[in-house]
Design a protein that fits this description.
Elements (H helix, E strand, L loop, with lengths): L2 H20 L5 H26 L27 H6 L4 E4 L9 H7 L1 E4 L12 H16 L3 E10 L6 H19 L11 E6 L3 H10 L5 H11 L5 H10 L4 H9 L1 H4 L1 E9 L43 E6 L4 E8 L6 E2 L5 E2 L4 E6 L6 E8 L2 E4 L4 E15 L18 E18 L2 E19 L6 E21 L12 E3 L13 E21 L3 E8 L23
Parallel strand pairs: 1-5, 3-4
Antiparallel strand pairs: 2-5, 3-5, 6-19, 7-10, 7-18, 8-9, 10-11, 11-13, 12-13, 13-14, 14-15, 15-16, 16-17, 16-18
């Protein structure tokens, strides 16, 4: 104890007791007690003062070791229903007859949130909430035989990026969460299933700022009240970026925006009523007095009992909407082709092309075939070409099936870039003295735009331009013998007057760098995928322990946007 503190205590005690004695409120025993305390206090003061002189030489006092008391956590399986679901407030348990409605205030405060990566709509396998739902919550709901009476889901996106992109992302995230949940529990349909999207979730942003006590929350709320009633997202974003020279926007981009790239969910479950047990009343029958019941020994078979056969897991099926697989198309401009320079006539070019559409990603793959085969033997005019081309396209708009629900138009549309390769043979003759035949190959790049013509996107119109390089070898030919013009056999000969032993085919070469194709193409979806597709995962029957770990998120790990 500090010396000053001890002396102060002693002074306070003496002062209080002295006032009692002078006020004649003290007895003889109090006077004796005061003298005893004074003598003891004086002695303790002397001992304390003397002890300070030897403080440096005092032995250190070893404190008691700290007692580390560890409390063993209680496993979720051992908790009662009320204790278990209190840990997960996004699962609301109600009794039969109660209202299952969930207001926005409860939804924003307690909903389960699955956080997505930037520009992605795929369920992240390492998300804490995803693991919690898959391994803990959904198995407990199935084990307790709870009836899911309402599910409310809301997909959202952070404010950066265009409004159109954020609309697709919020819808894709909401659908990704729906597809994930329905693989584990039975989701009600109709009015009991509430699916919502929040293009740019400014409401959740403001609530997060209020919870964190952000000093700029009021300024942000004023801007919300100004622009949000009219859904002026672009003006609101520009106003937020202008605060403090952009410092507030950059801070929100790091602190708050990651939590806005999410899909939220609340599940309302109802306890199934337990029917009362009816025990029939049995009337005891008296036994005869001379009857003695002797139990028979159990019969134990000699042969061992065969083990039960293992439970075969049911294949887990992910449902896809009906989706185009292959389209067929033709270039309309080729049917108006005209050949000048001596041929001088219309020569439509029949052509056909196909394009393959994957389920996800930006790329599609196609091939085309052009085959004009016009000839006039009497006029010595031929226009015969067989051209084969393969191509790969990159669409700026991603064609993921989660971003384009059924009946919402074509998946791959808008602007695209293209790389192609081609090979062909040709035979062209303008008159009896000017004819050429040979082969050519080349490749290059192109660009175009795909415009849907129908609401569902089955019919499309494409505008295309491609350019590249073309190399070829050819031989000129003519009608009748070039060596002996007087010899008339009415046949075509190569334009060669040298020794026949020195003749080699394709001695002439040509090359071209520039435009190679222009097109206005009409396209129609010819083939479609089925409405469901089996994945590698399995879904075990209720009550069966899994023997092999599986990942139901495999179909969603290939691409996606924020």
């Amino acid at each position: 104890m500090n010396v000053e503190v001890f002396l102060q205590i002693m002074v306070n005690v003496f002062t209080r007791e002295w006032k009692n004695i002078r006020g004649k409120r003290a007895s003889a025993w109090q006077g004796l007690a005061l003298l005893f305390c004074a003598s003891r206090g004086l002695m303790a003061t002397l001992l304390l003062v003397c002890g300070l002189a030897f403080e440096a030489q005092a032995l250190p006092i070893t404190p008691f070791p700290e007692m580390n008391i560890e409390y063993l956590p209680v496993a979720d399986e051992e908790l009662s229903d009320s204790a278990f679901y209190s840990r997960y407030p996004y699962v609301v348990i109600i009794d039969e007859g109660e209202d299952p409605e969930i207001d926005d205030e409860y939804f924003y405060q307690y909903a389960a949130s699955v956080i997505f990566r930037v520009s992605k709509t795929t369920i992240p396998a390492d998300d804490k909430t995803v693991k919690e739902l898959r391994e803990t919550v959904f198995p407990r709901i199935n084990r307790d035989s709870l009836k899911v009476v309402r599910v409310k889901m809301r997909g959202a996106a952070s404010p950066e990026g265009s409004v159109a992109l954020n609309q697709r992302l919020s819808l894709g995230r909401q659908k990704a969460l729906y597809n994930f949940v329905k693989n584990y529990i039975d989701i009600p349909e109709g009015d009991s299933l509430v699916l919502e999207t929040e293009t740019e979730d400014y409401t959740y942003l403001y609530k997060r700022m209020m919870q964190d006590g952000d000093p700029d929350s009021e300024r942000v709320k004023q801007l919300f009240d100004t622009y949000m009633p009219k859904q002026q997202y672009a003006q609101l974003e520009n106003a937020l970026k202008a605060i403090d020279g952009g410092r507030l926007w950059r801070r929100m981009l790091v602190t708050y925006f990651p939590s806005l790239r999410a899909a939220h969910m609340v599940i309302v479950c109802q306890r199934k009523p337990v029917p009362p047990l009816s025990v029939p009343e049995l009337e005891p029958k008296p036994l005869p007095e001379d009857s003695v019941v002797t139990p028979e020994p159990p019969v134990i078979p000699d042969t061992p009992i065969a083990p039960l056969p293992p439970v075969e897991p049911e294949p887990w099926v992910e449902r896809y909407p009906r989706r185009e697989l292959l389209s067929v198309k033709t270039n309309l401009l080729f049917y108006g082709a005209y050949m000048p320079g001596g041929y001088d006539r219309w020569c439509p070019i029949p052509n056909i092309a196909v394009e393959y559409y994957p389920l996800r990603g930006h790329f599609t793959y196609g091939a085309s075939f052009d085959c004009p085969w016009w000839q006039n033997y009497d006029a010595h005019k031929y226009f015969q070409i067989r051209n084969y081309q393969v191509e790969a396209r990159y669409y700026f708009r991603k064609g993921d099936i989660e971003l384009r629900p059924e009946g919402k138009g074509a998946a791959f549309k808008g602007f695209y870039l293209q790389a192609y390769g081609q090979v062909g043979v040709f035979g062209i003759c303008l008159d009896s003295q000017r004819g050429w035949e040979g082969e050519a190959l080349g490749g290059g790049i192109g660009a175009g735009y795909v415009l849907p013509l129908s609401k569902k996107g089955h019919w499309r119109l494409e505008f295309q331009l491609q350019a590249g390089v073309l190399f070829g070898g050819y031989d000129p030919y003519q009608f009748e013998n070039p060596v002996n013009p007087a010899y008339r056999d009415h046949l075509y000969y190569y334009d060669w007057t040298g020794s026949p032993s020195l003749f080699k085919k394709r001695q002439h070469r040509f090359s071209w760098i520039g435009p190679t194709r222009i097109g206005i193409t009409l396209s129609y979806d010819l083939l479609y995928r089925k409405a469901r597709k089996k994945t590698d995962g399995v879904r075990l029957p209720a009550g069966t322990e899994p023997t092999k770990r599986y990942n139901p998120l495999v179909p969603y790990e290939k691409g996606g946007r924020r």
